Amino acid sequence: MHLSWGPEEVAFREELCAFLDEHVPPEFERGYDYAGEGEGEDGTDIVPEWARQWQATLFDHGWMIPGYPPELGGRNCTLVQTLVYLEELASRRVIRSFHYPGYGIVAPSLLEFGNEEQKNLVPAAVRGDTIWCIGMSEPNAGSDLAGLQTRAVLDGDRFIVNGQKVWTSYASVAQKCFVYVRTDPDVPKHKGISLLIVDMDTPGIEVRPLRHLSRSAGFAEVFFTDVEVPVENLVGGLNDGWRITQGSLAHERAGLWVEGVCRLDATVQSLIGVAERCGRSRDAGVRRDIATFYEQASSLRALGHKGFSSFAQGSSAPEHSYMKMATSEIGKAASEYGMELQGAYGAVMDPERGEESGRWVNYFFLSFANTIAGGSSEIQRNIIAQRVLGLPRS
Amino acid sequence: MNFGLTDEQVMLRDTARALLAKECPPILVREHVDDPTVALPLWSQLKDFAALGDGPCTDLCLFVEETGYAAAPGPFFATTALFAPLLAAIDHELLSAVLAGDTTGTVAVAGADGHWMLNDELVKTFVPEADRVDWIAVVDASARVRVVPSADVSTRQTRTVDFSRRFFEVDTAAVAGAPAIELDPAAFANLTARAMAALAAEMVGTSRRLFDMALAYAKERIQFDVPIGSFQAIQHRLAECSLAVERATAAAQYAAMTLDANDDERFRAVHVAKAAAGNAATRSAKDSIQIHGGIGYTWEHDLHLYLRRAIGSEYWLGTTSWHHDRLADLLMPI
């Protein structure tokens, strides 16, 4: 156990910092609101042009996914160097991309499960030239993802897809979609699912933007009516889709907690600022509450690193199962506390009244998604209980 | 930063675990309530590890996590986490004998308010194991240290809920004229941080014991024809409890690493560690009792031996709230 990085990591960080100092877009330096989601009110500027250029710049310099080879936007760096990379970006409140699915889900899935032709889609997904969305959740398949009902029927050399997806982030701007479909309704539900690559401009697809309760329009409903998908767009084997959802996104997953923890750190630091601006920083109760948030955030950062250390040594890292649940729950409580600190002005959304222009209300509202999307806190507790602690299924 | 254990650290932890499982079973902790001498054979084993008192904090913490798991009674913690580091800081001639396991000691700091802070009071409180160690190091208001034979001071036990750790009031008036050695107040702050980090690690061990007992019971206890651990209400309570234990574990190890590196973050990290450990200890104590149901709150069941250690530790060297308040002073200076 030791605190410092080795010389290879130090040199890696120096090279990274030199790149970032030169290339980070001014939009970040002017104070990109890291705790927000970067989603426009009307859904059109979900991925602004400057952010597209930034992602392409990262790719072209081998800094998009540093663990990948150069042709995929990386530099074949080690897992530990990847952690250094993620922490440095997060500490500068810089994000790589405004659309996660392409580089975070599609690329690693295609590299592991796709055929050679499908793998050719990876560079554009990582560079952000192609925007992807993920068609997983449905009105009746949320936490019970395997219960999805969108049907795909094989008809000669094509699938005919009918059904509906919902909570589909980036659908309004995406060119392609990873669609999980039911290809065999007569077997246990996990065993009848397949994964298709679908072009979003295929006839029969309708996208209806879905507003978040904060009024931002980051996600959408997607309707499929007799959509024809070439059979070669099947990823992996027929009825093998569930394995892909569970598949090894390990390289990304091992670092996913970094952003959660850094966001939480940033929120806690901001709480100190709110307390000062609202004249409550000498209040003993407020001080203790903020210190408690700090304790939670800081111990979670240590837990993430501890899990990463065992992962990097080739062991399993049950620690990471806790990180998503804990950072999202504590983040929600912290953003609510930012409202509470403002007293009567806590619920004010008027930019000309109060000290905080309603931003804490926004954080609070946006935080609702964090304890639900990507596996609700309840599902996470089930997973911890059953897979980490070995308790029997009910 | 690297939380990975070296091969030597894995061996140290495994050795401690096996030794304490054998030499410190629940029956020993139980008998210790009425007869502190039952812990003597345990010390004869643990004294082989007294050199940890002057080694890396990370190694000491790995070891005391296991003494905490076993709720080990005796002078080990006082000697290695309090006395030896203090002797090392003042370059005292007794150090080599202490590290060899040939003699034992404790440290007296707190005054009437019970806080581990410098003061000019002659009656010291919450001095662990004062009646069974050979030496007591008394620290005065100017951080001057007097190392005196424990036989030279009068002690009175302060009974707490914890049967496995014994605290004493020590009247140091009789040794006020003993020769004193100057200690840099900054060094005292580091020693205090080291003691708190070690206690946090020990509490992590106790928390893990309480959690392990609850988890095992949830798997074996049958109600409504199924193990109670198959119920989501029990599963979610255990999931949250294990989160508390896991993050306290990481926080305590991180604090030890910052101390070994003399990192600027170390004081914040120690407050975080003791607070996280306090949260884990009290939470796992309560959750474990709740999951054990009726058997959990009986005298016969061993659970309360560890619950007592957990609660006793929470109140020593600063409660969770006290550490939050000190942390706030560092984060938001007035």
Describe the 3D structure.
The complex is a heterodimer of chains A (394) and B (334). Chain A has 394 residues and is of the alpha+beta class. Chain A folds into 3 domains: 7-98, Butyryl-Coa Dehydrogenase, subunit A, domain 1 (Orthogonal Bundle); 132-239, Butyryl-CoA Dehydrogenase, subunit A, domain 2 (Beta Barrel); 250-388, Butyryl-CoA Dehydrogenase, subunit A, domain 3 (Up-down Bundle). Chain A contains 13 helices and 8 strands. Chain A has helices at 7-23, 26-29, 49-60, 79-91, 100-113, 116-119, 122-127, 241-245, 250-277, 284-312, 319-340, 359-370, 377-388, and strands at 132-135, 151-155, 158-169, 176-182, 193-199, 205-210, 219-230, 234-235. In chain A, the strands form 2 sheets. Chain A has a 4-stranded mixed beta sheet. A 4-stranded antiparallel beta sheet of chain A has the order 2-3-7-6, with no helix packed on it. Chain A is globular, with a radius of gyration of 22 Å. Residues 34-41 of chain A have low confidence and may be disordered. Chain B has 334 residues and is α+β, with helices and mostly antiparallel strands. Chain B has a domain at 185-331: Butyryl-CoA Dehydrogenase, subunit A, domain 3 (Up-down Bundle), CATH 1.20.140. Chain B has helices at 7-23, 26-31, 40-46, 57-69, 76-89, 95-99, 185-220, 232-260, 266-292, 303-314, 320-331; strands at 105-108, 123-128, 135-139, 144-149, 154-158, 167-171, 181-182, 222-223, 226-227. Chain B has a 4-stranded mixed beta sheet, covered by helices on one side. In chain B, a hairpin with a 4-residue loop joins strand 3 (135-139) and strand 4 (144-149). In chain B, helix 7 packs antiparallel against helix 8 and helix 9 runs antiparallel to helix 11 (320-331). The model of chain B has no long low-confidence stretch (mean pLDDT 97). The chains are: A alpha+beta (394), B alpha+beta (334). At the A-B interface, helix 9, helix 10, helix 11 and helix 13 of A face helix 7, strand 9, helix 8, helix 9 and helix 11 of B.
